[in-house]
Amino acid sequence: MRLAKYLAHAGVASRRAAETAIAAGRVHVDGEIVRDPARDVGELHRVSVDGRELDGPEARVVYALHKPLGVVSTAHDPQGRPTVVELVADADPVHPRLYPVGRLDADSSGLILLTNDGELANRLTHPRFEVQKTYRAKLGGGPVDDRLLRALRRGVELDDGPTASARVRRLARDTIEITIHEGRNRQVRRMCEALGRPVLALERVAFGPLRLGGLATGAHRRLGEEEIGALRALSST
Questions:
Q1: Could you identify which of 88, 110, 210, 223 might form a hypothetical disulfide with 203, taking C-beta atoms 3.0 to 4.6 angstroms apart as the criterion?
Q2: What per-residue confidence (pLDDT) applies to 97?
Q3: Catalytic one of 105, 145, 159, 160
């Protein structure tokens, strides 16, 4: 297995971050600094990062979490706010090192994934694979009309360029369901605000083939192999 992939499977970091650590000379194989991310390593090699020897690749796991409002989508927060990783760790103390797949703002709720599989996480968030995410948004500014729906479907001009077309449907007088695949920072909020419709509440209800369903706020569950396989299939082309 290539060294960068080995580190990603061991839960050290995503493959891209692992390559950076290797280039910086932070990784040793059998006591020697290795700067080649393509170096082959296996079970008989001793691999360490920043002086800490790894036990080898961990079993790869993926959790689905219903993120509450006020929780941040990071492993650690300098401001001391609760994190999505802590929610899983508090309920299940014996778990591998996890990090979130993508982000949800602190003022947004809904489905977020956590995994120790850096390669899968990177592929699920890379724009090239166009993994779809679906959100339910309550909007200010009056009833949702057909003109707003058409504008969102066409794409909206933002300060970092036009968005791709979105799938949108009206759920209630002031609520829409919107599916996007670009994953820009605060994209749904920015799209709606650019059209004069501030988002009052935002919840992610689907990530690729996974639905939030009846998962309670703050609760999580470990995905089965079939569900993980469906996620891998999204980024296999």
A1: 110
A2: 76
A3: 105
Radius of gyration of the chain (CA): 20
Correct CATH for 3-53 of 3.30.1130.10, 3.10.290.10, 3.40.50.720, 1.10.110.30: 3.10.290.10
Question: Can you give the pLDDT at residue 92?
Answer: 57
Residue 222 amino acid letter: R
Give the contacts of 100 (CB within 8 A, at least 6 positions apart): 73, 74, 75, 84, 85, 112, 113, 114
Q: What is the mean pLDDT of each run of 10 residues along the chain (237 residues)?
A: 82 79 92 92 86 77 95 90 87 68 94 89 85 97 96 95 96 97 92 97 96 95 92 78
Using the CB atoms, write b or e for 184-200: b if 16+ within 10 Å.
eeebbbbbbbebebebe
Q: Is the dihedral of CA 140, 144, 146, 151 positive or negative?
A: positive
Q: Is 105 a catalytic residue?
A: yes
Record: fold of 62-127+217-234 = Alpha-Beta Plaits (3.30.70)
